[in-house]
């Protein structure tokens, strides 16, 4: 039980990668708080966490709303008795090169990371050795794209901000790292929809992955747990790519 006694907060933790991260922490003994917009999915995941036998807290939170984030983090800290680990996972998935998509990506993918990190910092500072932040970016941050330029550009900003966080927070003993997943498929997710709605894109993406399959949320969660654990105690400011070699195909 590697995280027994630890308290993890997963922003955007009700489904997909966020859900798998939350369940993985719970499976290793951590108390877990999650938030997202959808109350029904939140309650299902909260119940799954609680069924593992650890303390669970869940509350709806629109991560594009600064006030909502400022309310959620203190409530999560109170419910768990503090915060040792913060995972910033949510995305606004800005696709088109237009004002609406840029606004969605900036507000959720970037500013929610900034705001949640600021809000959690007092508890992270009180946590002592081992406190850390893990931000979820994407391999889209590492190459040009025609399909989703706002998403890619803002995820690149998350990678850069993570390195700045690491430098800023090191004197307080807080680490900050980033995980950049490749194409991850799960029920209700983007790639499950692409399989039927845009099979040409799905097949081309699948062909670009040397292992011949999409990634699973649990594989991203394992990388997050490593970076959040004492085993990564001398790692900070880094971005760990979890893509099955997808970037190797160009």
UniProtKB/TrEMBL annotation:
EC number(s) stated in the UniProt entry for this protein: 1.1.1.100
Chain ranges passing through the membrane: none
One Pfam family it belongs to: adh_short_C2
GO terms for MF: 3-oxoacyl-[acyl-carrier-protein] reductase (NADPH) activity
Entry keyword set: Oxidoreductase
Top EC class for this record: oxidoreductase
Gene3D superfamilies membership: NAD(P)-binding Rossmann-like Domain (3.40.50.720)
An annotated GO BP: fatty acid elongation
InterPro entries linked to this entry: NAD(P)-bd_dom_sf, SDR_fam
Family per similarity comment: Belongs to the short-chain dehydrogenases/reductases (SDR) family.
Protein's name in the database: 3-oxoacyl-[acyl-carrier protein] reductase
Organism: Muricoccus pecuniae
């Amino acid at each position: 039980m590697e995280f027994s006694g630890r308290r993890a907060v997963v922003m955007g933790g009700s489904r997909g990668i966020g859900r798998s991260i939350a369940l993985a922490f719970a499976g290793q003994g951590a108390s877990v708080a999650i938030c997202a917009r959808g109350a029904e999915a939140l309650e299902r995941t909260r119940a799954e966490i609680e069924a593992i036998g650890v303390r669970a807290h869940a509350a709806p939170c629109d991560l594009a709303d600064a006030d909502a984030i400022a309310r959620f983090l203190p409530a999560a800290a109170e419910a768990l008795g503090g915060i040792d680990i913060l995972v910033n996972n949510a995305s606004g998935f800005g696709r088109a090169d237009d004002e609406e998509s840029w606004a969605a990506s900036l507000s959720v993918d970037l500013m929610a990371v900034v705001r949640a990190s600021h809000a959690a910092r007092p508890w992270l500072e009180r946590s002592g050795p081992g406190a850390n932040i893990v931000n979820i970016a994407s391999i889209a941050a590492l190459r040009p794209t025609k399909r989703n330029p706002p998403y890619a550009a803002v995820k690149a900003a998350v990678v850069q901000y993570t390195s700045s966080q690491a430098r800023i927070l090191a004197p307080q003993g807080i680490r900050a790292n980033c995980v950049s997943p490749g194409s991850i498929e799960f029920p209700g997710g983007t790639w499950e929809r692409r399989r039927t709605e845009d099979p040409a894109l799905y097949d081309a993406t699948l062909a670009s992955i040397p292992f011949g399959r999409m990634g699973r949320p649990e594989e991203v969660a394992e990388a997050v747990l490593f970076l959040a654990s004492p085993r990564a105690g001398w790692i900070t400011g880094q971005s760990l790519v979890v893509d099955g070699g997808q970037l190797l195909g160009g």
